[in-house]
Amino acid sequence: MTSLLHLDSSANRSHESVSRQLTALFARTWRAEHGPAGYRYRDLAADPVPPLETAYCALGRRVERNGFVPPDGVDAMVGSAAEEREWSRTRPLVTELLAADTVVVGAPMYNYSVSASLKAWIDRVGFPGALTDPDTGDGLLRGTKVVVISARGGAYGPGTPREAWDFQTPYLRAYFGEKGVAPEDLCFVDAEMTMAEVVPHLARFLPLAERSLAAARAEVIALASGGAPTGAGSAGVLGRVEASAG
Is 71 within 8 Å of 17 (Cβ atoms)? Predict the structure, then answer.
C-alpha cells in the first residue's frame, strides 16, 4: 500500500501558519490521488517528541558497540527501566518513518535552521542503527520520497543577500541523504518573505511574497500528485529579484 507520513513542526498551530497550509495542501492532494488508507499525521508541536535523556545515550552507545543492530535486536539490549522508557518513545517513531513511502515535512525556518520540535524528532529517529541496513550499512530510507516544505519570513534563496544564512536546507539535505534518501527523491519547497504582510519595513516585498507562495502551492500540488518538481522554484525567483532590490 502506498503510504504518506505527514509531519508538522510549526509552533503556530493556527490557520496563519504558512507551512501548515502547504503541508495540508500536499496531504489533501495526495489523499485525492491515493485514498486515505495509507495516510498518517503527526503534529510535532501539539504532541512534542521528548528531548533525549541519559538513558537514550547509554542504550545508543551499547548498541553502537555491537555494530548495526536492527530495531528488533535493541529490545534485548535494554538494561534499565529508564532505557526501556527511552526506547519505547523512540521505536514507534522509527517504525512509522520506515513504513512511509512518502514523507512530507513542514519545516518553518526558525533562527536560520529547523524548529526545536522537528530537531527532537530527528534526534529520536536517528537512534544508532535504526535507519541502517545491518547487512550493507546503507541507509534504509532509499526509495523513500521526502518533501520538505519551509516557510521563511525573509528571503534566503540563491542570489539573495542572506543565502549563506540558510542552515536549514543543507542540514536537512545532509541528514536525509545520509539516511539513504536519493537526491532525486529529496525535494524542497520554500515560501519566502512570509513576514512581508506583518513587518512594516518588509511591506515593499509583499508582491514577491505572493508570487513565492503561489509558486510553492503549484510545486506542492505537482509533487503530491506524483509528478516531478515543476521548476517554479520560488526561492530562485526571489533570489534574483531580492538581490537586485538590495
Answer: no
Measure the CA–CA gap between 106 and 129, rounded to whole angstroms: 25
- How far apart, in whole angstroms, are the C-alpha atoms of residue 19 and residue 231? 19
**Residue 195: per-residue pLDDT:** 95
Nearest to 9 by CA among 88, 104, 92: 104
What confidence tens digit (pLDDT) does each residue in 159-183 have? 999 999 999 999 999 999 999 999 9
* pTM to 2 decimal places: 0.91
**Residue 163 burial (CB < 10 Å; 0-12/13-18/19+)?**
middle
CB contact at 8 A, 146 and 106? no
Q: What's the rounded Cα separation, in Å, for the pair 41 and 5?
A: 6
Query: Looking at the domain that runs over 4-245, which CATH code has it been given?
Result: 3.40.50.360
| pLDDT tens profile 31-68 | 999 999 999 999 999 999 999 999 999 999 999 999 88
Residue 192: name the closest of 176, 174, 226, 169 by CA: 169
Grid cell of 245 as nine digits:
532590490
Q: Give, in order, the Cα–Cα distances in Å from 45 to each of 9, 13, 20, 51, 161.
A: 5, 8, 11, 13, 31
Distance CA 130, CA 37 (A): 26
Please give the angle made by the CA atoms of 170, 176 and 178, to the nearest 5 degrees.
95
Note the pLDDT tens digit of each residue in 211-223.
Answer: 999 999 999 999 9
| Ranges of H-type helices in 4-144 | 18-34, 54-64, 71-74, 81-98, 116-125
